[in-house]
Amino acid sequence: MSGLVLTTFDWVPPPPRGFVRDIRIRWALEEAGLPYRVESVPFKERKAVHFEHQPFGQVPWLTDDGLSIFESGAILLHLGEKSEKLMPTDTRGMSDTKEWLFAGLNSVEMASLPWSLCKFSGQSSDNPIFQQFESFLKVSRLPHMEKVLATREWLAGPFTIADIVMADTLRLVDRFDGLTDFPAARAYVGHATARPAFQKALADQMAHFAKAD
Ligand SMILES: N[C@@H](CCC(=O)N[C@@H](CS)C(=O)NCC(=O)O)C(=O)O
After folding, report:
1. With CB atoms 3.0 to 4.6 Å apart as the test, which of 120, 158, 198, 201 could cross-link to 26 if both were Cys?
2. 92: CA distance to ligand 1 center in Å?
Protein backbone atom coordinates (compact mmCIF):
# COMPACT_ATOMS: atom_id res chain seq x y z
CA MET A 1 0.00 0.00 0.00
CA SER A 2 1.46 3.33 -0.92
CA GLY A 3 1.05 6.62 0.90
CA LEU A 4 -0.58 7.06 4.29
CA VAL A 5 -3.37 4.61 5.06
CA LEU A 6 -5.30 4.82 8.31
CA THR A 7 -7.16 1.68 9.36
CA THR A 8 -10.15 1.69 11.66
CA PHE A 9 -13.17 -0.52 12.30
CA ASP A 10 -15.83 -0.87 9.60
CA TRP A 11 -18.54 -0.17 12.18
CA VAL A 12 -18.94 0.42 15.92
CA PRO A 13 -22.14 0.76 17.97
CA PRO A 14 -23.38 4.35 18.34
CA PRO A 15 -22.11 5.20 21.89
CA PRO A 16 -18.36 5.35 21.10
CA ARG A 17 -18.82 7.06 17.73
CA GLY A 18 -16.94 10.31 17.64
CA PHE A 19 -14.50 8.95 20.23
CA VAL A 20 -12.85 6.01 18.43
CA ARG A 21 -9.16 6.74 18.46
CA ASP A 22 -8.74 6.95 14.75
CA ILE A 23 -10.05 10.46 15.37
CA ARG A 24 -6.68 11.46 16.84
CA ILE A 25 -4.95 10.36 13.67
CA ARG A 26 -7.55 11.88 11.34
CA TRP A 27 -7.22 15.12 13.30
CA ALA A 28 -3.41 15.17 12.97
CA LEU A 29 -3.54 14.33 9.26
CA GLU A 30 -6.05 17.11 8.66
CA GLU A 31 -4.00 19.63 10.67
CA ALA A 32 -0.89 18.74 8.65
CA GLY A 33 -2.72 18.64 5.32
CA LEU A 34 -1.16 15.24 4.56
CA PRO A 35 -3.03 13.14 1.98
CA TYR A 36 -4.35 9.81 3.33
CA ARG A 37 -6.85 7.06 2.78
CA VAL A 38 -9.01 5.29 5.34
CA GLU A 39 -9.50 1.53 5.25
CA SER A 40 -11.63 -0.69 7.46
CA VAL A 41 -11.35 -3.99 9.29
CA PRO A 42 -14.31 -5.89 10.72
CA PHE A 43 -15.32 -4.87 14.23
CA LYS A 44 -17.15 -8.12 14.85
CA GLU A 45 -14.77 -10.74 13.47
CA ARG A 46 -11.15 -9.77 13.92
CA LYS A 47 -8.94 -11.70 11.57
CA ALA A 48 -5.31 -12.79 11.83
CA VAL A 49 -4.19 -9.97 9.52
CA HIS A 50 -5.69 -7.44 11.95
CA PHE A 51 -3.58 -8.87 14.80
CA GLU A 52 -0.51 -8.73 12.59
CA HIS A 53 -0.89 -4.93 12.48
CA GLN A 54 -2.32 -4.37 15.98
CA PRO A 55 -1.44 -7.15 18.44
CA PHE A 56 -4.45 -6.43 20.68
CA GLY A 57 -6.97 -6.49 17.83
CA GLN A 58 -7.66 -2.80 18.34
CA VAL A 59 -7.64 0.24 16.08
CA PRO A 60 -6.16 2.46 14.81
CA TRP A 61 -3.05 1.64 12.92
CA LEU A 62 -1.32 3.56 10.16
CA THR A 63 0.72 2.33 7.25
CA ASP A 64 3.21 4.64 5.61
CA ASP A 65 4.43 2.88 2.48
CA GLY A 66 6.05 -0.29 3.89
CA LEU A 67 5.89 0.76 7.53
CA SER A 68 2.98 -0.28 9.77
CA ILE A 69 2.56 1.52 13.12
CA PHE A 70 0.09 0.83 15.95
CA GLU A 71 -0.59 2.81 19.17
CA SER A 72 -2.08 6.22 18.56
CA GLY A 73 0.76 7.93 20.48
CA ALA A 74 3.40 6.28 18.28
CA ILE A 75 1.44 7.14 15.15
CA LEU A 76 1.18 10.78 16.25
CA LEU A 77 4.92 10.94 16.89
CA HIS A 78 5.52 9.53 13.41
CA LEU A 79 3.28 12.20 11.89
CA GLY A 80 4.86 14.86 14.11
CA GLU A 81 8.20 14.02 12.53
CA LYS A 82 6.67 14.62 9.10
CA SER A 83 5.11 18.01 9.73
CA GLU A 84 6.09 21.14 11.63
CA LYS A 85 2.37 21.83 11.95
CA LEU A 86 2.26 18.94 14.42
CA MET A 87 5.60 19.17 16.23
CA PRO A 88 8.23 21.93 16.28
CA THR A 89 11.67 20.98 14.99
CA ASP A 90 13.76 22.83 17.60
CA THR A 91 15.04 20.76 20.52
CA ARG A 92 13.02 22.57 23.20
CA GLY A 93 9.77 22.53 21.22
CA MET A 94 10.18 18.87 20.31
CA SER A 95 10.98 17.91 23.88
CA ASP A 96 8.01 19.87 25.27
CA THR A 97 5.72 18.23 22.72
CA LYS A 98 6.88 14.71 23.62
CA GLU A 99 6.69 15.43 27.34
CA TRP A 100 3.08 16.62 27.09
CA LEU A 101 2.13 13.87 24.69
CA PHE A 102 3.22 11.29 27.26
CA ALA A 103 1.64 13.28 30.10
CA GLY A 104 -1.64 13.16 28.18
CA LEU A 105 -1.43 9.42 27.64
CA ASN A 106 0.28 8.25 30.75
CA SER A 107 -0.70 10.69 33.50
CA VAL A 108 -4.07 12.16 32.52
CA GLU A 109 -5.64 9.44 30.37
CA MET A 110 -4.53 6.69 32.72
CA ALA A 111 -6.70 8.40 35.35
CA SER A 112 -9.53 9.53 33.09
CA LEU A 113 -10.11 6.29 31.21
CA PRO A 114 -11.12 4.08 34.17
CA TRP A 115 -13.33 6.95 35.41
CA SER A 116 -14.93 7.32 31.98
CA LEU A 117 -15.48 3.56 31.68
CA CYS A 118 -17.26 3.59 35.06
CA LYS A 119 -19.45 6.46 33.85
CA PHE A 120 -20.05 4.73 30.54
CA SER A 121 -21.19 1.54 32.26
CA GLY A 122 -23.46 3.50 34.62
CA GLN A 123 -21.57 2.75 37.87
CA SER A 124 -23.20 4.28 40.90
CA SER A 125 -21.35 7.13 42.64
CA ASP A 126 -21.64 5.05 45.87
CA ASN A 127 -19.38 2.39 44.42
CA PRO A 128 -16.06 2.55 46.37
CA ILE A 129 -14.05 1.61 43.28
CA PHE A 130 -15.65 4.46 41.33
CA GLN A 131 -14.90 6.79 44.25
CA GLN A 132 -11.22 5.85 44.04
CA PHE A 133 -11.14 6.63 40.32
CA GLU A 134 -13.05 9.87 40.94
CA SER A 135 -10.47 10.98 43.48
CA PHE A 136 -7.53 9.92 41.30
CA LEU A 137 -8.88 12.01 38.42
CA LYS A 138 -10.41 14.97 40.21
CA VAL A 139 -7.92 15.41 43.05
CA SER A 140 -4.64 14.09 41.71
CA ARG A 141 -4.82 15.06 38.05
CA LEU A 142 -7.39 17.64 36.90
CA PRO A 143 -6.55 20.42 39.40
CA HIS A 144 -2.93 20.29 38.20
CA MET A 145 -3.93 20.35 34.54
CA GLU A 146 -6.29 23.21 35.33
CA LYS A 147 -3.37 25.33 36.63
CA VAL A 148 -1.33 24.62 33.52
CA LEU A 149 -4.19 25.28 31.11
CA ALA A 150 -5.10 28.53 32.86
CA THR A 151 -1.70 29.94 31.85
CA ARG A 152 -1.36 28.94 28.19
CA GLU A 153 -3.27 28.38 25.02
CA TRP A 154 -1.49 25.19 23.91
CA LEU A 155 0.70 22.86 25.90
CA ALA A 156 4.01 23.15 24.08
CA GLY A 157 3.77 26.68 22.66
CA PRO A 158 2.16 26.21 19.23
CA PHE A 159 -0.64 23.66 18.69
CA THR A 160 0.94 20.17 18.53
CA ILE A 161 0.17 16.45 18.67
CA ALA A 162 0.31 16.81 22.47
CA ASP A 163 -2.83 18.96 22.28
CA ILE A 164 -4.54 16.35 20.11
CA VAL A 165 -4.03 13.73 22.82
CA MET A 166 -4.79 16.00 25.78
CA ALA A 167 -7.87 17.63 24.25
CA ASP A 168 -9.27 14.31 23.08
CA THR A 169 -8.67 12.82 26.53
CA LEU A 170 -10.36 15.74 28.31
CA ARG A 171 -13.18 15.76 25.75
CA LEU A 172 -14.26 12.32 26.95
CA VAL A 173 -14.26 13.53 30.57
CA ASP A 174 -16.37 16.50 29.49
CA ARG A 175 -18.82 14.16 27.77
CA PHE A 176 -19.65 12.82 31.24
CA ASP A 177 -19.70 16.33 32.81
CA GLY A 178 -16.40 15.75 34.58
CA LEU A 179 -14.98 19.20 33.81
CA THR A 180 -17.66 21.31 35.50
CA ASP A 181 -15.21 22.38 38.23
CA PHE A 182 -12.37 22.93 35.77
CA PRO A 183 -13.20 25.94 33.58
CA ALA A 184 -9.76 26.31 31.98
CA ALA A 185 -9.78 22.64 30.95
CA ARG A 186 -13.28 23.07 29.51
CA ALA A 187 -12.26 26.18 27.59
CA TYR A 188 -9.19 24.33 26.26
CA VAL A 189 -11.37 21.48 24.98
CA GLY A 190 -13.70 24.06 23.46
CA HIS A 191 -11.06 25.87 21.46
CA ALA A 192 -9.22 22.69 20.45
CA THR A 193 -12.39 21.08 19.13
CA ALA A 194 -13.41 24.28 17.32
CA ARG A 195 -10.41 23.83 15.00
CA PRO A 196 -11.52 23.04 11.44
CA ALA A 197 -9.24 19.97 11.36
CA PHE A 198 -11.01 18.45 14.36
CA GLN A 199 -14.44 19.26 12.93
CA LYS A 200 -13.52 17.55 9.66
CA ALA A 201 -12.08 14.52 11.49
CA LEU A 202 -15.21 14.20 13.61
CA ALA A 203 -17.59 14.52 10.66
CA ASP A 204 -15.57 11.97 8.67
CA GLN A 205 -15.53 9.45 11.54
CA MET A 206 -19.28 9.81 12.10
CA ALA A 207 -19.95 9.38 8.37
CA HIS A 208 -17.63 6.37 8.16
CA PHE A 209 -19.50 4.43 10.86
CA ALA A 210 -22.95 5.61 9.76
CA LYS A 211 -22.25 4.28 6.26
CA ALA A 212 -22.07 0.75 7.68
CA ASP A 213 -25.38 0.86 9.64
N1 LIG B 1 -3.52 2.28 23.31
C2 LIG B 1 -4.27 2.12 22.08
C3 LIG B 1 -5.71 1.93 22.44
C4 LIG B 1 -6.54 1.70 21.21
C5 LIG B 1 -8.00 1.51 21.58
O6 LIG B 1 -8.39 1.56 22.77
N7 LIG B 1 -8.80 1.27 20.55
C8 LIG B 1 -10.20 0.99 20.74
C9 LIG B 1 -11.03 1.90 19.88
S10 LIG B 1 -10.93 3.54 20.51
C11 LIG B 1 -10.47 -0.42 20.29
O12 LIG B 1 -9.92 -0.87 19.32
N13 LIG B 1 -11.37 -1.10 21.03
C14 LIG B 1 -11.76 -2.43 20.74
C15 LIG B 1 -11.13 -3.42 21.65
O16 LIG B 1 -10.38 -3.04 22.56
O17 LIG B 1 -11.37 -4.60 21.45
C18 LIG B 1 -4.06 3.33 21.18
O19 LIG B 1 -3.99 4.45 21.71
O20 LIG B 1 -3.96 3.17 19.95
Report:
1. 201
2. 31
